């Protein structure tokens, strides 16, 4: 049953009750799509004409918990359109105290409010919880002193919420807004709580920095927002002034805003599957024709296309030999992608079996005539980068698309520390490159862990192999379900002498190896990337005992050690080196002084159930270990593998060749940026040009992230490549997002039509507040 807003003059006593209340309100808040009128879903006996099966269907997609609870069928709904915010709120609280539920809305924002106990009884996870609301009025000359009335009102609200001032995560003081603006402003803060989004002050960042990022908190600390809405009034009958302040204390709920759709009308994707060239061309032509003749059904076309793909790939016997992924930023651009793909396809198919048998466009469309990731190939490897690939503001938008993943990670451990958020998301972008070695290591493992969970949990991708570049081996063990408590290493990495002083900082391991005393001068250490094979460098090392060949990686090497000797070595080679200007003695002879400590540091308890279908390849030995139950892995084996890699020269070229010989064909990089993919591509190119030992092995790289690119676009391009390489995966997250987009579009369209037919004011609701 729908009730109108009570008249304003009926709520004065309620306002007094709110002001005097000393108990938390405990009101559950759900953000609704602005276009969703719940009165159309009630099916009440009083107004059966309002019942809309189509709206109810859309509710089941947009708000599944609310729909499944049947709450709208069993509880009286009060519908309030905001006109006098203070009066509307007090009327809302009165209705909730009487056991009703309330939808309160403006044209651009909408909330469903109910008692928190009612939400819990109906298994509804609220987006936020209103703990306090206080109204403070002042009618004297001090009324214009905003801070006075605001602080008094806020103090009362915090007292009502039973919270101390230091428990408030953010405080917003908003002045001179009308009722609609006040409600919309409060809704925006609730949306941020529900999406765990922190917005930056636009005046404090440059255009290249992210406008927002994940809202990190200290471990186990809830997000709490305090909001003060202050207005001053001039009496029309006298010269006296008055002021009013409404204060709220709102905390995060157990639910969160539903994911943003990964694909939409500005980020398109189609998948074309077939067994022959002729069939592929036919499907391309059919897709092009449908786009041309039915442009208005773009979202539905993409959804139906992906549903068809998902169904056909649920049965392995029905999987087609080839797949084309088409990506574009608009329908017009998609038509161009289809034309380009159709023109290029015959040439790519004729090169099948050669290294150029693939085609990809800048927009992300991709096709390979030589799929390397199918179940029959068993050639998929996850590759984990080493220290130093993380960058400022990385992954700043991912949480909006995968909120459940971030929620899971937050339950598992200290997410803020895992990402080293204070440095990665610092307003000064120079802070991230200057991070200490231990902090870089933590953030590197954290970024790899996040992307691994994303591919494994969200898209159901399981690698056949795993390998790591340098400390990427630690990321490998942490990310793929081997270590029982990888988060336990975060604090150890920040404080253990191994990272703070032994192989970084004061370089105590190096001083010991060089037999220096405390009175000797500090070591000036550096590392340089030089374009050269390893052999010429090795030949000169005896002349420079404090310079070391640290890394071999395709057509370049990294030398490290005493800066003076490294520069002298480069000068003798007549080579120019690029200085890393980072102090780390990993992969040099002095690091062997710490071998035992490294082994002890990484000797971590393993999971009771270990992955049985992944071969882990060690950079130190080049061999792979399969965790067949516990038959192939134990904590000592893992720790020694990391220590051996840590303390010896890293030959990444040899590691890649070893992986290829064991069956790896498709290398997917799991970490910030795409440095490993670049290196592997160079190694493969060098092999082809020079007739290297792995010339005959097919090789393709897939970066999941790229510095300077859009996070979701980079991810979507990676998924497109994996689909074309026939990697078993699910596209259900894409389908779910499109279903929500379609439901919102249909809801908006149907309500616009209804309002037009009823000769009411044109509908101005937007699709903001998607849930």
UniProtKB/TrEMBL annotation:
Instruction: Identify the residues that the record assigns to the Malonyl-CoA:ACP transacylase (MAT) domain, covering every copy.
Output: 383-709
Q: Which InterPro entries match?
A: Ac_transferase_dom_sf, Acyl_transferase_dom, Acyl_Trfase/lysoPLipase, Omega3_polyunsat_FA_synth-like, PKS-FAS_Synthase
The protein's matches in SMART domains, at most eight in alphabetical order, are given as: PKS_AT
Which intervals of the chain are annotated as region Disordered? Answer: 752-771
Q: Give the protein name, as stated in the record.
A: PfaB family protein
Source species of the chain = Shewanella eurypsychrophilus
Traced from the root, the source organism's taxonomic lineage reads: Bacteria, Pseudomonadati, Pseudomonadota, Gammaproteobacteria, Alteromonadales
